[in-house]
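Students often ask why we bother encoding 3D structure as a string. The short answer is that it lets us treat folding as translation between two languages. Here is a chain of 285 residues written in the first language.
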Amino acid sequence: MSTTTLTPTPTDATPSAPATELHDEGRIGLRNNLRHIGALVRRNLLQIKKDPESMFDALLMPVIFVLLFVYVFGGSVGSSLGGDRQDYLNYLIPGLMAMMGMNIAMAVGSGVNDDFRKGVMDRFRTMPIARSSVLIAKIVVELGRMLVATLILLAMGFALGMELQGTVLGLVGAIALAAAFGAAIMWIFILLGLSLKTPQAVQGMGMIVMMPLQFGSSIFAPTGTMPGWLQTFTDYNPLSNLADAARGLMMDVPLGHSVWLTLGWTVLITVVTAPLAVSKFRKKT
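And here it is in the second language, the structure alphabet:
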């Protein structure tokens, strides 16, 4: 008969440190943080590869919005601009670049919320990785989707006859500015995704936020004919500043302070919401 020898545990053993201490971002280091972000980005890209339908919004939304607004409203709004549908196309495309980030950002919040409900985020929080790396990886992938949507938007614009009156460098600057602002908006929707209970609630709250900002701006039409109180709102609306900055960079029109105001909004939103989102991610039960 075989016997089993049990080795007693020393009574003076020092308890191991809690696992959460291993997840401290400062101890992980920048190099490991970047490596973790890269691995999580790859994981999110593989999810898109397995579910290509998740790209439908990025692929179809620019086409639908361009065709809808150019051919439904282009004649009347183009006349108010002192031109025709072609002039409205040149006005609209840079404005829609400002809108792409908002629509893509809403999907980020819904996705984060859904991942928590499925238990995916709980598994990530048990790993020795920085908490922020999970959220940053989400933003990196969504910025990629936003870039795809923006390129399709520009392709549609050029196909319909849009004229780039500025320089190629200005076009690249407009895309970069829209991407930076889009990343800032994504932190807001991540925070909503972590705070609300269901993806449907995130989408509903997102629409409540998006509709006034998008239509109470200079994205779709000039603000000169709006009531005074609404013009005041559009002056402080970050989407108006971004749309005006994109037009200035792409169409060689005066920029004013629109670029600096957009950069200011981008920094302010990120500084306020990113730490709140990471803190909420750590504490969410």
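Translate back mentally: The mean pLDDT is 84. Keep this in mind for the problem set.
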